[in-house]
Each structure stands twice: as C-alpha cells, then as structure tokens.
Amino acid sequence: MSRSHDDLPRALRHPIPGVTRRDCLKTTAALAATALASGCGASPSATHSAARTANHRSMDMTYDAIIVGGGPGGLAAALTLGRACREVLLCDAGTPRNAAATHIHNFVTRDGTPPAEFRQIGRAQLAPYTTVEVRDTRVEAIDGEPGAFEVKTAAGLVRARRVVLATGMIDGTIDIPGFAEAWGGSIFQCPYCHGWEVRGRRWGYLTLGLEGIQHGFPAMLRGWSEDVVVFTHAAVDVPAEQAEALSRAGVRIEPRPIAKLVHEKGRMTHVEFTDGSRMALEVLYAHPPQRQVGVVDRLGLELDPMGFVKVDPMTRQTSRAGIYAAGDLTSRAQGAIFAAATGSHAAAMLNHDLSMAALRDTAAP
Ligand SMILES: Cc1cc2nc3c(=O)[nH]c(=O)nc-3n(C[C@H](O)[C@H](O)[C@H](O)COP(=O)(O)OP(=O)(O)OC[C@H]3O[C@@H](n4cnc5c(N)ncnc54)[C@H](O)[C@@H]3O)c2cc1C
Predict the structure, then answer these.
(1) Which CATH class is domain 5-170+290-363?
(2) For 34, 47, 141, 191, which has the most beta carbons within 10 A of its beta carbon?
(3) Which residues line ligand 1 (CB under 6 A)?
C-alpha cells in the first residue's frame, strides 16, 4: 500500500533502501546537533531546543499541523504528532488558565508541580522530536480548508494542513471585592485540584445560579469537609426541596449578600456581609463565567449550550473539517490531565486523517 509522497510525514519522505525510520530520525537529530555545534546561531544552553527554533524552517513550508495553545492539551498533541514524525508548529500566547495557582495537583507523575515548571518539562520533552517547533506567539486568525489552512500569527503567516485548537478558556470573575485577588490562592474551581491540602476546614461554595446545586457540587464537597456553606449572595432562591436535600447532606445555605471577601495577599480569612457581620472562611469554590478566546470565536464553530466547542467524540474534529479541538475549550470537565488526554487523542486522529488523505490521493486517477 503506497502513500503519496507529499502526504508522508516530512521526516520520512525520502526513503533510502535499507534505511529505517529510526535511522532517519537519528540522522536528523545528529545533523541538527552538528549544525548547532558548528554555530548556527544557538547558544550551548539552547542546544536541547535546536529542533524548535524558527530559523531552521522555510517561511514557505506547509506544516502537517499547527497547534494553537501550549498548555497541557497543546503540549500533549505536539508530543503525539512529533512521535508520529509529523511537521508541527505549536504557537503559544503564554496566558495559561491556571496562572494564578501555585501548584498543579491530580496529574499522576506531576502532582504538586508549579504550572510554569509543568510547561517547561512539557517543552523539554518535545525537544528530541526534531519535526516539532514551538513559538511564543499569538494566533490571530485561521482561514482555509483541510490541506491548506492559513494561520495568521503575531509573527507572520504560516500554512498548515490541519489545525488543533488547544486554547483553553478565559475565566471571567465574580463582581465581589476580593474575588479576583483570591482566585487561585484560596478560591478554586475544583476540589480534586485544590482540596486535599485544605481538607477538614470550613469550605464555602459561591453560586449565582442553581446549576451547581442541581448537579450535587456542594454535597460532593462534604467528602473533604464536614463544614460546607453555600453562599448564594442573594442572587438565587434555592427551592425548598433542594434546600432540604442540602440540609440532609449537612450543607448550610447562607443567602445574605456579600460585601467583600476579606483576604491577606490572596489568602481569604473572612466573608463580610452587607449587614456588616463576618464569617470566618479560608476556602471558597466557585465557577465564574468563562468565554472562548477571540480566534476560536471568530471561527464560528458549533458550540454546545454551555459555550464549549463541539467535537466529534471519536475524532475530536470540530464542526469545521480539518480543525480539531482539545482541552478546556471543549468541556466543563476541566483538568490538566483531561486536557492532555484529549490533546493526545486529537493528535492521533489528526495523524490518522492525514494518512487517510494520503490513501485517497493515491487512489485518485
Ligand atoms: C486557578 C486554577 C487552578 C487550577 N489547578 C489545577 C490543578 O491543580 N490540577 C488540574 O488538573 N487542573 C487545574 N486547573 C485546570 C487546568 O489549569 C486546566 O484544565 C488546563 O490548564 C487546561 O489545559 P488547556 O491546554 O486546555 O488550556 P490552558 O492550560 O489554559 O492553555 C491554553 C494555552 O493557549 C494559549 N492561547 C490561547 N489563545 C491563543 C492564541 N490565540 N494563540 C496562541 N496561544 C493561545 C494560552 O496562552 C494558553 O497558554 C486549574 C485551573 C485554574 C483556573
């Protein structure tokens, strides 16, 4: 079964009889190392990232895939595609969702790693894959179709045959003084991420709607703390039936409007109500509104009712052919390991798609 020459991963496009893929990759890596050693503009400390410096690439080349976003989703997609010998460009604007957090938890082998270190490790592990390039740049617009996408970045126009969106979500805030300052320090979205360290203390859940209560979020928090208070900030009336259910689960409801969340350098100490009274509280969970980044908005992709990009569950392709999506922008189930898993999934399906395109081209008269 033969593939058309152009649809083979670039690293494998010029097979030499008796030379295996592994030999090809070893040679490519050795050439890159030699080029660096002879002084192609990289300092010795940058040697490990030789493969991903933009200078080595022709401005006219068409990448197999452009990955937009260098969080866990984008890094995992790049790793999978790099291991598939695909030519990949990962563009990252450097604004991760978890920037306010001190550590990432609940990611096996990386539990307790600071977010910046997590990304450094991710990039370092891409370095041996000489067909993967990483640029710190924002993608501003995406146009085109499978095989011929044009991607406008802050650093210029690039072309790719497929696109992976791994842009995360933008978290809004809740308009209560102190909320923005304590976000990530003592106000969290997820107890699996930031729960164990503060287990057993009084926990709050701030909600301005009924959705979280209906989905059992505050009752679940009882697994970590016996003292859970739901703050409704006078914004929502909890129906009697649900209030009783919460009470049976040992969860209190505090309906008074909040004047401010009192904190010291982002660490909450109290909730202060508009009537002047205070309640001690160090840990609060909340789900502020989220929105898609501009470049995703402008693509006009189909979204689900909650505003997440709809993907085919098997292929992770969006409503636009050739554009895949992974990570937070596709789901309310948001966690670094979920993003990484879906990034790897999207990349594998994208690689399969390119391989099938090669078969179709070969079959064409
Ligand atoms: C405060 C806080 C703490 C958290 N703690 C944990 C935790 O302990 N454990 C855990 O598992 N999860 C945690 N999470 C959730 C976790 O951070 C996310 O689920 C995860 O980062 C999602 O990965 P992602 O790759 O989808 O998006 P992100 O990590 O948000 O990465 C998206 C990347 O895309 C880039 N980008 C966006 N638009 C563009 C563009 N136009 N061009 C180029 N690049 C672009 C951004 O700059 C960003 O770097 C936390 C979240 C928050 C808010």
Answers:
(1) alpha beta
(2) 191
(3) 68-74, 91-98, 100-101, 104-107, 138-139, 166-168, 171, 184, 189, 193-194, 293, 295, 327-328, 334-337, 339
Q: Where are the alpha helices (DSSP H) in 47-199?
A: 72-83, 115-126, 179-182
The residue whose two tokens read 């190392």 is: 33
Would you say the CATH fold of 173-286 matches that of 5-170+290-363?
A: yes
Report whether CATH 3.50.50.60 matches the domain 173-286. yes
CA distance 317 to 80: 16
Q: How far is the CA of 296 from the centre of ligand 1 (A)?
A: 15
- Read off the pTM: 0.86
Q: How many CB atoms neighbour CB 66 within 10 A?
A: 26
Buried b (16+ CB within 10 A) or exposed e, 153-183: beeeebbbbbbbbbbbbebeebebebbbbbb
Domain residue ranges of the chain, discontinuous segments joined by +: 5-170+290-363, 173-286
